[in-house]
Amino acid sequence: MQTCLVGYTPDAAGEDALALARTWVRAHGWSLVVCVVAPEAWGHPSLARLDVEYGNFLAQHTQAAIDKAQALLGDTPNVRYIKFASASASAGLLEAAKQENADLIVLGSARNGPEGRISIGGMIGEIMHSSELPIAIAPRGYSASASAVVGRFTCAYSGLEAASGTVLEALGIATAMEAPLRLVSFAVRDRQMYPPLIGYQAEESLAEAWREQALASLERVKKQLTRQQPPVAIAVTVKETWEEALSSFDWLPGEMLILGSSRMGVLKRVFLGSNANKIIQASPVPVMVLPRAS
Amino acid sequence: MNAFLNALIRKKSINDDARADHGSGELKRSLGLFSLVMLGVGATIGTGIFFAMAEAVPKAGPAVIWSFVIASIAAGLTALCYAELSSFIPASGSAYSYTYVSVGEFPAYVVGSCLLLEYALAASATAIGWSEYLNNFLQHAIGWSIPLHLRSPLMVSGANGLEMHWGNFNLPPIILVSMCCLLLLRGAKESATVNGIMVLIKIAILVFFSVMAFTAFNSHNFVPFNPHGMLGHAGEKGMGIVPAAGTIFFSFIGLDTVATAGAETDNPKRNVPLGIMLALLIVVAAYILVATAAMGAQPVAAFIGQEAGLSAILENVTGQKWPAILLSAGAIISVFSVTLVLIYGQTRILFVIGRDGLIPRIFQTIHPRTLSPVANTVIVSVMVGLIAGFVDSSYLWDMVSMGTLVAFALVSIGVTVMRRKSPELVRGFTLPFGPWVIPGLSVVACAWIVVGLSNVTYTIFAAWIGFTVLGYAMYGIHNSKLALKRI
């Protein structure tokens, strides 16, 4: 049986993560591990017994979190609750996932983003960039509208050679989950060269060429997957912002967006950000980030 | 034979172009008169003034001021013609697309090939000028200068014509072009803010130069004022006011940007012509100010072969290094941006021509992630870099002007053709005085300046057009999307 590990915190983000994990395991008969990571207590005894007091506080806090998660999950089958002590939340979750042989890590959005969207905080960023497992992230407020089933998988396809691996993985997931797969390509035309010299329309022309190219590329992939049932759908869009691009697609209840992990180096990520980050933050549905191909 | 001739003048319809270019994701803009003027000044000023003096003053002497006036009149008349066409042909590709719609496919192909001279060669030439200012900056700032054989071209215009200096290679322009290429490949764009900063830097440098240079103003430098007359005296082919106007004509490249922005302008009937005129006045005033200051500061003979001219003049005038360092630093930054924009413009023109099927498909392949035309950018950059690395810039400026003037003349003809062919089309802006006066004057002005260009320029241009005709006959005519659509 495959295992989904949810990184739980006793707040709204934790609720969203639990809601997404529950949908996933209910639909596909996976087992669920709810993991609460607590900071490591200082190992050396102090004369004032502060270490013991702190240790007790952590234990109570962790137990309270697990109690809350239990109350939320109710009678969901195949659930285990674990506590994990680690110096950092991200390292703890990754270690716990390894220990539990997890196949998927589910997280909630960081707290500083808008409702209905995902915000990538430091912890999610660290996990995304170092995990060897797929990561699913629930948007803020997802628990209120959580669907009982994963309605469809939408895989973002860049058209690059490396993206074919992502498509195959997405196909594998969709087939295993008996859900339809849709491949989408989207681009953002948000910049203009000043002065434009040959007129403002030049960039429109490039965007149009990109749209044709992306569509042809998706058609080719679709042709290779003609035996897939239900058939693979495709869609392409070019908009001025990532938000507009993602909102322009229709999204079914319980739909999930699948992304390949960024191939960019650390420096580039830190200083420039990546398209993947922007896409995740603009997505109106939960996002699954597949690990970088080894 | 008739079929062949028909192929040469087959025209795109306006709707074809509008449909092709207005895909999804169109950005909406609304430019007022001020923005339009700033756009024109930003696109025009600085392309040539940093390098023009050393090329043009020896040809015309102090009368080069008239050369600026003549060149500005031709540029202004043509920009007005652009304005009328752009107000009802919503196409990218500027002169190429207007000619495709108005005159026909083959003339458009020729215009495209002229634009290659206008943008790619101008990029090579500005990169060479950048190299001079870089060397000047290094020399004054850290006391080190790039070895002469690494900043000199292989093909040199010497006293006896073309000379080959096999040990020479101009490295800095290649570095500059490579940097521009990498930025463009990443999909980088110079934003309106960065452009605004560049305009300010350029204007600040020119004002700074003029103020400093005027402190050493000597009216004797203006005598004789017009040593070579309009077209040079007997045996002086290539000298005089008009040939100098040809050489500095490239300083007005970019003014047509105001016209191509017509569709995004509030009240284009008033703002576009006014914007062109105001931008032109500001630019020509700045050029004449700089030219007067420069010529007041040193005699005509001192301009010949002068590298990093404006910096060198400041150093001579003040006897100190810091003004030259400041000016060179400003030139290095702003000319970098000029080269970037020129290479960008070139890639987009080739992209548009590629979309029409007239050149190989590789020019319109887009990188899926950066949305930049990768092969196109690399090919253009290699070409621009190689020319900048091996060829003397004195060969380039006249070629740039030749290409630009021929393209401008064909666009002007397009206005008259469209007035006769499609008088019913609603134009956002219509030239005053009917279909003949302004386009006619524009063609005459362009032709007059072309007459003054050197024989070498004619020879190279003729060879280039021959190559263009060959390219069209062997590829363009057979792969034209317009032709394939009609079959």
Strand elements of chain A, count: 10
Q: Which percent range fits the helix content of chain B?
A: 55-70%
Helix and strand string of chain A, N-terminal first?
Answer: EHEHEHEHEEHEHEHEHHE
Q: Quick check: average pLDDT of chain B?
A: 87
Low-confidence stretches of chain A: 264-273
In terms of per-residue confidence, which ranges of chain B show pLDDT below 50 for 5 or more consecutive residues?
18-27
Helix segment tally of chain B: 19
Shape type of chain B: globular
Q: Give me the strand/helix succession of chain B.
A: HHHHHHHEEHHHHHHHHHHHH
Q: Structural class, from helix and strand content of chain A?
A: alpha/beta
Main beta-sheet strand count, sense and barrel state of chain B: 2 strands, antiparallel
Specify the oligomeric state. Answer: heterodimer
Summed up, what is this model?
With 294 residues, chain A is α/β, with parallel strands linked by helices.
Overview features:
heterodimer, A: 294 residues, 10-stranded mixed sheet, B: 487 residues, mainly alpha, two-stranded antiparallel sheet, 2 strands
Write the layout of secondary structure elements.
The complex is a heterodimer of chains A (294) and B (487).
Chain A: E1 3-7, H1 12-28, E2 31-39, H2 50-73, E3 79-86, H3 89-99, E4 104-108, H4 122-130, E5 135-138, E6 152-156, H5 163-176, E7 181-188, H6 201-224, E8 233-239, H7 242-247, E9 255-260, H8 266-272, H9 275-282, E10 287-290
Parallel strand pairs in A: 1-2, 1-4, 2-3, 4-5, 6-7, 6-9, 7-8, 9-10
Antiparallel strand pairs in A: 5-10
Helix pairs in contact in A: 3-4
Chain B: H1 2-8, H2 14-21, H3 33-44, H4 49-60, H5 64-86, H6 95-102, H7 105-142, E1 155-158, E2 161-164, H8 171-185, H9 192-214, H10 241-248, H11 256-260, H12 268-297, H13 309-318, H14 322-355, H15 374-390, H16 393-421, H17 437-451, H18 455-479, H19 481-486
Antiparallel strand pairs in B: 1-2
Helix pairs in contact in B: 3-9, 3-12, 4-10, 5-10, 5-12, 5-16, 5-17, 6-7, 6-16, 7-8, 7-14, 7-15, 7-16, 7-18, 8-14, 8-15, 9-12, 9-14, 10-17, 13-14, 14-15, 16-17, 16-18
